[in-house]
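Q: How would the structure tokens look for this protein?
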Amino acid sequence: MFKAALLDFDNTILGTEKGNFKAFHDAMHDVYGHGLRVDDFLHFSGSSWLDIFRYITNKYGKITAEELNVRFIERKADFFAHHGVVVADGFRELMEKPILRAIVTGSSRAEIEIFSHIVDFSAFDTIVTNDDIVNGKPHPEPYLLALQRLNIEASKSFAVEDSKMGITSARAAGVYTYFLKQFADEDHSSIADRTVDSMREIIL
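A: Here is the predicted structure in token form.
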């Protein structure tokens, strides 16, 4: 029986990826005068933002990864101040279950707090962001840190993810993994333990 839910954030709790892409595209234009180029996409999908910022700034220069991160967060906050965001079906119901809860995300804390008016972060027992780790997804470190903070075994936990990187990270940490299809751009059913259309289908 599961005793802890470990949830990815972008395109899992909230359907944010299209807004993320628009914000990153605009931040790139601010600095470099162009958005992502074709070969850049190979390093974009499923990677943590920190890895993406490092890749872009190593390739194009001008500013540091940290400075590009600031530009991105500013653009993201502006975008979502003017656009709505969809909450995952079944998320509210899952949060009412008597289990431990964690967010395990490749985003920064400042980035997810853009949505503090939508998601009650105090309802989570721990939140692991890019600020807390050295190795992002698909490395197991983010999930291992969440398990350590919750003081719970991987076998008693499950993860909900939308991306190949996230599923790989969770499974490498020994966590049972649900692939959530609701916001996903690609089908990763073959690498997850189970696929669901909604969090309502998750069996505790």
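The helical segments are 17-32, 49-60, 65-82, 91-95, 109-112, 141-150, 164-172.

DSSP finds seven helices and six strands in the chain.

Upvote if useful.
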